[in-house]
């Protein structure tokens, strides 16, 4: 018997994995998403991975991402030439393109005066593998100071710009392709088409990957992993834990028990959605812990945001651990010792990549471990979403028949409305904020804006009062802040330019319907400098 650790299980339903080699910056994740949008499975690997290891995965193609380095800089990431000689189709973008050019004997200049941002690309060979069916003049997005001035031998130059003579090159015989721009960003008008041309025409990959494959694959893998043991899952009301739980439920049915801690800081209707609609849709066995009073007591008299976060986090872990222990004890009565061996977590692919786990080797256990584990009990993790992006998780949820309100839910912070009240958290204030938030959500949905807005925190400035007039009387009420933001990943955000009439309707309804609120204000700050949440 060999003592070596077992190799990763083969991807039975997705033999066509495309590896995206990450040269830094934030492009690799976007490229991987775009490849999957083209219905081809992709994974990100670090540029430090030895080429032999990449090839050992037998990828259907390899994409080299952009990155901030210059190929001339000392310590800049390099690539073993063997990558281009293995017969695997390769597509280089931006830095990946320059590296490919340099490695194969072309010339890369770093004279500086290059294009950034929106640029006009001139396609000089219209029927080429990459550009067929796209216009001779098209807008692309550039983001690098270096550029290629001479293509390597054997390559045909297929596009240029006003200042860059070699903005794309192709070698059909060797199946090697490259572009100076970023096809993965929205501002490259035909970017997705160019990427798909590489995948389908250049690399000959069939677009067959779907989230349906993921469900089948995961259900089989979870059954195999869990056997006849039992699993437990904490539900937060958010998309990730709901979809992870539904997937595990599909695989092992009543061997799974879910726990939902109702901390009283949820928005209107959300607890009921989990208690009724989620259970109805999945048939999951759910333990709901009503801990509202416990959280209110712990938060009484506390206004400091950091202090509030700490209290909510601490109480959450205590309540969750207690519920876990109860479930384990109950199951032990019925099923013998150590009956619950698995803990389900809704870890997503960006968490895995960002914690250095893109290779599948890093340990990310602590990353999402919100519940904390009892010390005397060791759980193995089940993370059925760890290869998926958020939008794919939503698709899986939809296919599993989860309620639309859960699947399409916008991001909501773990500490809930507790951090959307500026000031002390009390039951009255929570109820008031719940009403205002429900009105805003209702009107945004009615106006069809849910998909345009990343999230719209509604905030109560509980420590602020101002004078107003309503009916015949003077009022002295609180302001409500609307914080609609547009974002791709919450790292940066801009305030959403929402239609005035929708804002007007929300404002009128909130001031009419929510007692003690006499003003609605709009937050017009981007992130940075503001954060998305007020606290
Ligand atoms: P900020 O306010 O830092 O928020 O711009 C960025 C994103 O993170 C969410 N957020 C949280 N999510 N637990 C969470 O699960 C938290 O404590 C938390 N705080 C902020 C926020 O809603 C936004 O999407």
**Percentage of residues in DSSP E strands:** 15-25%
- The total count of helices amounts to 14
- How far from one another are the termini? 57 Å
Class derived from helix and strand content: alpha/beta
| Domain tally | 3
CATH superfamily of the largest domain: HUPs
**How much helix, percentage-wise, in residues?**
25-40%
Biggest sheet details = 9 strands, mixed
Average pLDDT taken over every residue: 90
Low-confidence stretches: 1-14, 358-375
Shape: globular
Radius of gyration: 26 Å
CATH class of the largest domain: Alpha Beta
What small ligands are held by the chains?
xanthosine-5'-monophosphate
- Compute the number of strand runs: 23
Widest sheet, order of strands: 2-1-3-4-11-10-9-6-7
Structure description:
- The protein is built from 14 helices and 23 strands.
- The protein is of the alpha/beta class and 535 residues long.
- It has three domains: 18-202, Rossmann fold; 211-407, 3-Layer(aba) Sandwich (Rossmann fold), CATH 3.40.50; 420-522, GMP Synthetase, Chain A, domain 3 (2-Layer Sandwich).
- Helix 5 packs across helix 6, helix 5 crosses helix 11 (390-399) and helix 8 (292-299) packs antiparallel against helix 9 (305-335).
- Helix content is 33%, strand content 21%.
- The strands form five sheets. The protein has a nine-stranded mixed β-sheet with strand order 2-1-3-4-11-10-9-6-7, sandwiched between helices. It has a five-stranded parallel β-sheet with strand order 14-13-12-15-16, with helices on both faces.
- The chain binds xanthosine-5'-monophosphate (XMP).
- Residues 411, 413-415, 455, 490, 527, 531-533 line the site of xanthosine-5'-monophosphate.
- It comes from Streptomyces wuyuanensis.
- Pathway: Purine metabolism; GMP biosynthesis; GMP from XMP (L-Gln route): step 1/1.
- Keywords: ATP-binding, Glutamine amidotransferase, GMP biosynthesis, Ligase, Nucleotide-binding, Purine biosynthesis.
- Homodimer.
- Its EC number is 6.3.5.2.
